[in-house]
Amino acid sequence: MKRRNMATYKPDFKKSYIAAHEKLVKLPLGTTFPLKTAKIIEDFSDLELHSFNWAEKHGFLRIYFKSESAELYEQNGCYTIFYNETKPSTHSKFSILHELFHYESNHDLNAGEKNTELYNKQEVEANFFAAEMLMPEPVIKELEKRGKKMDAKEIQKVFGTSAKAAEIRFKTLKSYPNFLRSNEEKEFDEYLVKFTFKKFIDSICPKMRKLDLQNEYEVQAERDRWIAEGY
Predict the structure, then answer these.
(1) Which residue from 51, 90, 117, 187 has the highest number of Cβ atoms inside 10 Å of its Cβ?
(2) How far apart are CA 216 and CA 180, in angstroms?
(3) φ/ψ of residue 49, rounded to 5
(4) How far apart are the first and last CA of the chain?
(5) Dist. CA 86–CA 71, nearest whole Å
């Protein structure tokens, strides 16, 4: 008797989370939101990034594209993300990062035609990656610790995203399965709050000095340690 294929297609949230944070910790100190996604594509990949309008001018008719938002396109081993320039920038930023994750994860670009479960898994993971890049969980939690109510409306305002993305992000943070963080992952989270996005966080919700247990010398010494270790 043939054994039934027991393969499951449960989204790997941890994979998406780590992939996002590996990029976020490499952003310059003082980075603010909304992120410049074109710069992220340039700095962290060998992808080309062009609009649908550009594509049409170079022989790629819009009818070639399956998506109305953005699409990862391969030709002769070279990959390009094409995006719909007529969509709001908030929509395009999310879509571009979504496609970036497909590329880096070697996702099957034709999964939708062959395996619905695999396609859905890939889409959920790519969406979670884009959301974590544009609305990082550690930043949201730090703002909440400082007394700011981070509902969907506030997430949209703080990070400059679309209302839909903020609403889904708010609901997802309350419902997605928690996973154990390794010490390295916890350090990444801490670094984002203490260094990469510290100025941004302080600009949104200043931390009371009496609650800050580290003086400037200690903060600089810790930052120097991170740099010395190659982060």
Answers:
(1) 90
(2) 31
(3) -130, 120
(4) 52
(5) 14
The residue to which tokens 């603010």 are assigned: 32
pLDDT digits (tens, 9 = 90+) for 52-87: 999 999 988 877 888 999 999 988 889 999 999 999
Spatial CA neighbour of 191 closest among 169, 219, 212, 159: 219
Structural contact between residues 144 and 201, judged by C-beta atoms closer than 8 angstroms: no
What phi-psi label fits residue 186: left (phi over 0), alpha (psi between -120 and 50 degrees) or beta? alpha
For residue 2, give the DSSP letter.
Answer: P
3-state secondary structure of 1: coil
pLDDT tens figures, 10-53 = 899 999 999 999 999 999 999 999 999 999 999 999 999 999 99
CA neighbor of 103 nearest in space, from 126, 69, 132: 126
- Indicate the pTM of the whole model: 0.85
Instruction: Count other C-beta atoms under 10 Å from residue 158's C-beta.
Output: 21
